[in-house]
């Protein structure tokens, strides 16, 4: 068996991904599985929020989006320093979509929402800052 190792009398199977503290790490020490799952779960939450967004005020929308989406993006984001640009772009698309959801009109500009707090974008911010959209 090439995909398992025997430890005493127990057979332990290899895994392509490992999760520790909610962060997934690929077999080649890449964060691709983590970013993929994070983006997928964030967009799922955004679809759920979108179904009731018209009934919420702008303040409540900000709180809901920050609670259910941005908090996921911010969790352990300092680990993402040095990941390829295309993975950061996927996370940036989540943040841009949250801003569009807060504005609640796809034709309005979202730049003011993203810059409401000191530069919320991924590439230019420090690893310790947050991407809060409030």
Offer a quick outline of the entry.
The chain has helices at residues 32-50, 58-74, 85-103, 111-114, and strands spanning 4-7, 10-13, 17-20, 23-26.
- In round numbers, the mean pLDDT is 76
Low-pLDDT segments, ≥5 res: 117-122, 124-130
Radius of gyration: 18 Å
In total, the number of strands is: 4
Provide the β-strand percentage band: 5-15%
- Quick one: biggest sheet? 2 strands, antiparallel
Shape: elongated
Helix content: 40-55%
Secondary-structure-derived class: alpha+beta
Structural commentary:
- With 134 residues, the chain is of the alpha+beta class.
- It has a domain at 31-114.
- Helix content is 44%, strand content 12%.
- The protein contains four helices and four strands; from the N terminus they run E-E-E-E-H-H-H-H.
- It has helices at 32-50, 58-74, 85-103, 111-114, and strands at 4-7, 10-13, 17-20, 23-26.
- It has a two-stranded antiparallel ribbon.
- Strand 3 and strand 4 form a beta hairpin.
- Helix 1 packs parallel to helix 3 (85-103) and helix 2 runs antiparallel to helix 3 (85-103).
- The longest helix has 19 residues, at 32-50.
- The radius of gyration is 18 Å and the shape is elongated.
- Mean pLDDT is 76; it is low at 117-122 and 124-130.
Task: Walk me through the topology.
Blueprint: E1 4-7, E2 10-13, E3 17-20, E4 23-26, H1 32-50, H2 58-74, H3 85-103, H4 111-114
Antiparallel strand pairs: 1-2, 3-4
């Amino acid at each position: 068996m090439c995909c398992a190792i025997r430890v005493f009398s127990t057979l332990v199977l290899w895994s392509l991904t490992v999760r520790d503290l909610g962060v997934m790490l690929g077999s080649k020490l890449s964060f691709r599985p983590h970013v993929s799952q994070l983006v997928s779960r964030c967009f799922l939450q955004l679809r759920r929020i979108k179904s009731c967004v018209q009934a919420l005020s702008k303040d409540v929308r900000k709180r809901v989006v920050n609670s259910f989406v941005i908090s996921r993006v911010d969790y352990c984001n300092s680990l993402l320093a040095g990941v390829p640009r295309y993975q950061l772009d996927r996370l940036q698309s989540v943040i841009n979509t949250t801003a569009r959801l807060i504005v609640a009109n796809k034709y309005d500009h979202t730049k003011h929402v993203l810059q409401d707090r000191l530069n919320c974008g991924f590439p230019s911010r420090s690893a310790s800052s947050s991407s809060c959209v409030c």
